[in-house]
Design goal:
Chain lengths: 275, 275
């Protein structure tokens, strides 16, 4: 039983084992003693969400989070409206499947300034907030690495996410702390502390930054394969009062090529050794 | 003459037209009305530095800077000593060729923490400072994009470069502001202002951040090809009292494949239109 006890905080994102169907991920995670699962929206395509919810419960897994909403900025009102509608649908999907929160990759519109993108993000979050509250789904702002500032997120540091939470001042809006995006930031420790004080740390994502990293998106490292101070950052997050799961979120062409059962064993070992 | 007047602040880094020899770069830059040249060390390999210096003067170009020193951190004392020796040689080379300063890509050692790397960078700069003063060569710390924190530089924001300059408190140590590395930073304007107040802006590098960017190193954009707020950042730098050159520094497999005369024409047009 010792192995299972060790894994009590381990959650895996379905995208980490992308070659598997959602059913395969549920089965293999549960059998390996993984405790939590974060659902990527694509994994639910053409599935009955109630069926998946029940399958996850029956397997003894907890649904930790739903990835991902956001992408609020747009250079036309029409684009921004489409984003709102999409986020509202995602909230429904998260509620159906029983995910306590959705992760927001906030977006960045290249044709407007970063400041303007951030304004549109705050407007977008405010627009969907009412529906999220009604459905009992929380919203986690995920600051992304500055290398994504042109496209995926105009929120690029923990400080910006904290500022945004303070400005919005909405009860169920918090932050997803992701090591991959934030490990380099000299203000990370103090800003995690700040988020902890406001009880705003809603999720914690782990993986590693490889040296060298060869792709902007699909070359994340398994914990221990890179140089991020993974345990140190986890200790900051947990010292900040966070008691939730350690979510393994890895996009990697390299790891996706492997037999995913082997990869799952490697994830569990890396979690024990380095996370 | 109007064209030449327009170009009075235009400097080009030899690496921008990498397929050319140093002699070809000098000839073509001068003929096109470019006023300044920044020398990359590799362009001087197997050359007599006095000859190059004279050739540049005869062509009517000004030597703006020498790229690049730094890479101070190392996980052994031996590696750090090698870096010091290399930087001392670079200072000699810069003095020989008449470059007023060298740019420091400070380095980052993956086997130690970023804080420790920064300590070693400060120690390294202090070690070479005496020789640099003696030779009349200034030192410009260049903060690099956080995507290089694992390897090329543990100095990743303008704030960190300012902090470093204040801690070192050395007369001839300043900062090279590079749009590519810093455009995303929400504190950039205030930190440029801070550097300006201390008279610490020593160089200004321009290019563009492409959306999407497909390579970590060799996919920089010509001004106007991307989404960085180039003119706005230049105005911050110049409002901060900087009167020096606008240095075009582009590493791009795409542009290097072109006929470099055509590329030079494009650089000049992009400089007029977007820089």
């Amino acid at each position: 039983m010792n192995d299972l006890t060790d894994l009590e905080k381990l959650c895996i994102h379905t995208i980490t084992t992308k070659p598997w169907t959602i059913e395969e991920s549920i089965e293999h995670y549960a059998r390996a003693g993984v405790q939590g699962i974060t659902l990527w929206r694509d994994a639910l395509e053409n599935r009955n969400r109630q069926t998946i919810r029940k399958r996850i419960q029956d397997a003894g897994l907890n649904i930790v989070s739903m990835c991902r909403g956001g992408f609020f900025p747009g250079d036309t009102a029409e684009k921004r409206e489409l984003a709102i509608e999409d986020n509202l649908r995602l909230i429904d999907e998260a509620a159906d499947v029983g995910a306590p929160h959705i992760v927001l990759v906030c977006g960045s519109e290249p044709n407007i300034s970063l400041e303007e993108s951030r304004q549109q993000i705050m407007e977008g979050i405010s627009r969907i907030y009412g529906h999220a509250r009604e459905k009992g789904v929380k919203l986690a702002i995920e600051p992304l690495h500055p290398m994504y500032a042109d496209s995926r997120s105009a929120v690029n540091t923990m400080e910006q996410a904290n500022d945004m939470c303070e400005t919005l001042c909405l009860k169920n809006v918090g932050i997803a702390v992701d090591i991959y995006h934030l490990w380099w930031d000299p203000h990370l420790q103090e800003e995690i502390k700040r988020a902890g004080k406001s009880d705003n740390i809603m999720a914690f994502h782990t993986c590693d930054w490889k040296n060298p990293t060869t792709d902007f998106l699909l070359d994340r490292g398994l914990m221990g394969e890179g140089i991020a101070p993974i345990r140190e950052i986890r200790s900051w997050v947990e010292n900040g009062g966070f008691k939730g799961y350690v979510e393994v979120e890895i996009f990697s062409e390299l790891h996706w090529k492997k037999d995913q059962k082997t990869f799952l064993e490697e994830i569990i070992q890396a979690y024990k050794d380095f996370a």
